Amino acid sequence: MLDKSMNKAGPEVDAILVMSLTSIARKGNIESKEIMKLRSNLFSWLCVILPKKLKREQKDYQHNKVKDDSFPAYLVLMCLINIINITIVTKTSFDEDIISGYSNQIVKAVISSLKIGISNICRDEVSSLCLRFVRVLVTTFSGLNSSLSKVLNAFQIHMMIATHSMFKSSLAKQESSDIKNNVFVENHKKSLLHFNIMDLTKLDLKDTKLELVYLLLCCVSVSDKYIDIDTYGMSSLIGAYNAGLSEFDRALRRLFYLYELNSTKHEKVRFRSQE
Amino acid sequence: MKQSNTFLNSTSMVSLNHQPSRNLFTDEVRWGIYENEHSPLVQGRDMNWEWFIENLSPERIRLTLSQFPFWESLNPLPLIEIERWYLSTDDDHDDNQHTEDDDKSKSSDSATSETGSKGNETRSENDVQKKVVNIIRRDYWQGEGTDGRYSPSFILPMILSMLLAFLPSEGLQRMSKISKMNELNDENDEIWKKNTETDEVMLDNEYESQNDQSVQCEVYVDICYRLCEKGGAALVLASLSCIDPCLRQISVAIIGLLLKGIYSKEAHEIDLWKQRPQIQMILDSIQRGLTLRRDGIKSKNKESSLSDVSRLPPVSAIFLAQASLIVSKVDHDMYSSINGFFLKLTENHGAYKDTGSLPAFISLFCSSSDRPDQLKKEKIWALSLLSEAVLDNFDYVVASRRHVPALLLTTFETTARRKEKSSSFEMESILKAIIILVRNGGRIAYSHFTQKVGLTSWIKGFLASVDVTKCLSTLSLRFYILRLVHEIMNCGVRYCEDTVSDKYLIAEARFLMRSVVDFFIETTHTTFYRKERDSMRSQFQSLFCKTMCSMQSVVLLSSKDGKEGVEIENRLASRGVNIKSIHALLEMPWANHKELVRLIGSLSSFSFFVNKSDMDMVALICASILKVLLATDFVEMSSNYERILKMIELMLEKDKDNVVGNAVLINLFLSLRFKSTVSNESIEIWKRCLEMLKNKT
């Protein structure tokens, strides 16, 4: 049914989604083939529609319009994050055949999410969710012996972020007050409850630049390859550092440390004291 | 210092020149808004550290001291929720338990070991890090506005790098000789003075021939002067309390380097540095104190290394840091007291003797000053030191050795009995200090306060024995009383083990409930409560509900071994909450319905008693509770639903004859039928209640 209605929208898809998400959430810990297939199909389908939804979101944001969409980009992202979180919590996995069939679409979804996450072309909440989606995806698949783990390369994702022309400006961005005051959750409580998306208390939406650093941290920690950062990337990171104890500063300092540890392991001295 | 070097290097980075092959130096780091202000490549080497010293903010240093992050480590700890290899780490509710005997560094030593490697190494490391991570989780910023604190583990290596960068290599010898001469001047050692004077003449001749060396010395001393003026010395002194031994080592190294500058001839020549002798006195005192302590440890444990720096209790280190800031201002209220404290240190050439104990508290709290205003200021300062600087169980141990908990309780009671309005701030400060001792003192504080000091009995006794309306004459004071009860009960839940103190606390919570309820009702009748803003009143209600819930959690600890069933039968006890009080609570306007539900839930776990004269209230109370149950979503009260029904059943039984045939109650019960079907037990209670009501109809 999902396959058939993939390109449509409306109450039919809406109902299928609600039912699927509910059954995945409830029966997540029961490892049956049907549940695994349903989860994998749903995940792939959401990845397919994500780039289109993000494009629409971007257009609306640029033209300052609010179009009525029953299943907007933030909900797609949240559903995706929710599905991945369920697999982490229940220690289950995806159907390898289904996922490998959609690997190109999944990679496209990741690239679109990265683009929206780094560039300042969408609402802060959507950018933050995009980056979180990539992070949880990298975290989940890098540990599995999956065909997708070969495509989702932490090294490449890291490079794409650190060399992006908007990297510096996205780190220098002011913290979003809406995210800080949890306005987003309050505004969308109804839709989130409707789609049975995660316990609202766990929906801890982080600032975009914090999510960006978390994603870099995640890439450095999961990659088997030596991850380095050039001086442009490093100067952008240092420029955003405030020598404090905020979550952002702590994450940044940890990131500097991991870069240093990485370079020491590979015998490339990045930092040295004066002789 | 092997470990520190690793990250000393890693905190030093970035060139604005985009040449990947270029090596980066420690003095090329700049952060945040200052990034673009100074380019080392443009301004030349001498100006490389200017941005750092210029932008070091005294305000941020003060904020750091107000809630010092003693848990920081030189090698940043992993973010367990982000880095993949830490994802499965379970939470640990225990706090970091380090006693003085193991020199407070055991856990931290391992916590700061290599943190980035994967696989088995990180797995074994996780267990140790969990404890530190738990402290970090609790260390959320409690002050106003955003968290502006500095990260000492970043700033300290920067200060050390800066001092080392400017340290004149040739001038070192000269400065140290002069410093030795200065010391010995005081002791009138003429022979040594003669010798050093000869050296001095010789060195001066060399000095004249080396002009740039003189400039180097002047620049170095200027850096030391500016660093002290900005409060850098205070940050360094506070860092002696860090769990990470590497940070303590860096602190000691910086103190040594600062003293080199302070003792120098150039420092004496800076006219503006009027408070130099005072700073010198404090730094010198702690340096000697640490040496003495190290000798003491070395004599006990011969395996300890010379480079080991003992951890100071945060309260002692932060006292030193605050002292260094105070002596820099002659017009500070505490200047003479703090200056006097250090001047009185005569043993071992003025060595600071409180490296393992609570400094100056008793002398300031029980001040003998002639002036009443100064006496009060010293007392308040001593209390604020406790509130800001008691950060872990080590602090509690050193405070309890000086009998501080008992002293605070006694002083509070004495001050309260004086019934002076002017002393309410002092009373608030005392309560705040007690709360901090309970909250940050860990398991040790919890056991000591409940078993030895008898805090819960004291609160109960105090509320029963004094005229509360006159003694606690502000809402703010009453907030603190509730917070104190809330804190001790929370500790009870957090540190629950099947020990004597837990059983004692459970029993105490049952009796304390009545005092707390009466105290709350009495407060709502006062004029100052009525005059308060709505928001303040709702905050007070909210705190009361939280306190009641935490007391309930303590009482329910006993249900783990199935004792609750027995307790339910004994709920109609004479020492329980008066049914009149329950009625008053239910009749009160509540800003938040959820809080009322939680309150009813917590009341259902405690005993209550009914006077014959209050029998007519039973039906009213039952009806009010039933109405609340009907109006509430089942999820919000699911855990307490059965208990609440049981409480209603007990009340109905008590007033059996009068409630029979009560149509309102019967209707309410019938409406509650669906919700009661949730469990066999609740439907049974529901049936029995209905049976009781319809019996004679």
Structure characterization notes:
The complex is a heterodimer of chains A (about 280) and B (about 700). Helices cover about 65% and strands about 0% of the residues of chain A. Chain A has about 280 residues and is mainly α. Chain A has one domain. The termini of chain A are far apart. By secondary structure, chain B is an all-alpha fold. Chain B has a two-stranded parallel ribbon. Chain B starts with a helix and ends with a helix. Chains A and B meet through α6, α13, α14 and α15 of A and α1 and α7 of B.
Give a quick precis of the structure.
Chain A has 275 residues and is mainly α. Chain A is built from 15 helices and no strands. Chain A has one domain.
SSE pattern of chain A, N- to C-terminal: HHHHHHHHHHHHHHH
Number of strands of chain A: 0
Q: Give me the secondary-structure category of chain A.
A: mainly alpha
Strand order of the largest sheet of chain B: 1-2
- Structural class by helix and strand composition of chain B: mainly alpha
Mean pLDDT of chain A: 79
Count, helices of chain A: 15
- What is the general shape of chain A? globular
Main sheet summary of chain A: none
Radius of gyration of chain B (CA) equals 32 Å
Please tell me the overall pLDDT of chain B.
79
Q: Which band does the percent of strand residues of chain A land in?
A: under 5%
Number of helices of chain B: 38
Secondary structure: elements and pairs:
The complex is a heterodimer of chains A (275) and B (697).
Chain A: H1 11-26, H2 33-62, H3 73-90, H4 96-101, H5 103-118, H6 124-142, H7 147-151, H8 154-162, H9 167-171, H10 177-180, H11 183-187, H12 189-194, H13 208-222, H14 231-240, H15 247-265
Helix pairs in contact in A: 1-2, 2-3, 2-5, 3-6, 5-6, 6-13, 8-13, 13-15
Chain B: H1 2-10, H2 40-43, H3 50-55, H4 58-66, H5 106-111, H6 120-138, H7 152-166, H8 171-186, H9 190-209, H10 211-230, H11 232-238, H12 245-263, H13 265-269, H14 276-300, H15 314-326, H16 335-343, H17 361-365, H18 372-389, H19 393-401, H20 404-418, H21 424-440, H22 442-453, H23 455-465, H24 468-471, H25 475-494, H26 500-524, H27 527-531, H28 534-556, H29 564-569, E1 577-578, H30 579-587, H31 593-603, E2 608-609, H32 617-630, H33 634-637, H34 641-654, H35 656-659, H36 663-671, H37 673-676, H38 680-694
Parallel strand pairs in B: 1-2
